[in-house]
Design goal:
This is Glutathione S-transferase. It holds the Pfam family GST_C_2. One of its GO terms (molecular function) is transferase activity. By secondary structure, the chain is α+β, with helices and mostly antiparallel strands. It has eight helices and four strands; from the N terminus they run βαβββααααααα. It has two domains: about 80 residues, Glutaredoxin (3-Layer(aba) Sandwich), CATH 3.40.30.10; about 110 residues, Glutathione S-transferase Yfyf (Class Pi), Chain A, domain 2. Helix content is about 55%, strand content about 10%. It has a four-stranded mixed β-sheet with strand order 2-1-3-4, covered by helices on one side.
Length: about 200
């Protein structure tokens, strides 16, 4: 398998953490590829027409893209059970969607400041994106801590990578200040070798 990746992409990090946790990493060749919404750069357009990473070329079908799709595929390949079945499956998918929503909003904030000319930047729009992150973090703190404290699953991986990205790009926002349980959980989860090996620099 070939994984198109960027070392600072939080969506790629989700896939990389799962590869480490399932032992599948030796089966994957990493290929650098990245771009932006206004310049595809070296993004793998043949593997993913949307011009985004991660994209996974596999031997048994067309390339897969979107981190959620790739993670489900790799979990199935490894028979790791990180998504579970029945009610647990829907909880984990919801947690993963919450984490990815945090990433989507946090990344749009970065794009606003990096890609939009200064005279066209719109602070209320940036704050609206942070409000999404804020609400999602509150929901993790109030609703999902029991699931996050359970045995390793895909939802935990997604949340940890989302929190890592918020630290990486928006640390000044101080997300830990009002979420002591989530902060304590992440402090422990971040010590996992899979998280340390995939930490962006």
């Amino acid at each position: 398998m070939r994984l198109y990746h960027s070392p600072t992409s939080p969506y790629v990090r989700k896939v990389m953490v799962l590869l480490h946790e399932t032992g599948l990493l030796p089966q994957v060749t990493l290929v650098t590829g990245s771009g932006s919404p206004i310049d595809p750069g070296t993004a793998p357009l043949e593997a993913n027409p949307l011009g985004k990473v991660p994209a996974l070329e596999r031997p048994d079908g067309p390339a897969l893209y979107d981190s959620r799709v790739i993670c489900r595929y790799l979990d199935d390949l490894a028979q790791a059970g990180l998504y579970g079945t029945g009610p647990a499956l829907w909880d984990r998918l919801t947690i993963e969607a919450t984490a990815d929503g945090i990433l989507d909003a946090a990344l749009l904030m970065v794009y606003e400041w990096r890609l939009r000319p200064e005279q066209h930047r719109y602070d209320p729009w940036v704050e609206g994106q942070w409000a999404k992150v804020d609400r999602a973090l509150d929901t993790l703190e109030s609703r999902w801590m029991a699931e996050l404290r359970g045995p390793l699953d895909a939802g935990q991986i997604a949340v940890a990578c989302a929190l890592g990205y918020v630290d990486f790009r928006h640390d000044a926002r101080g997300w830990r200040d009002t979420r002591p349980h989530l902060a304590a959980w992440y402090g422990e989860f971040a010590k996992r070798p899979s998280m340390i090996e995939t930490q962006p620099a």
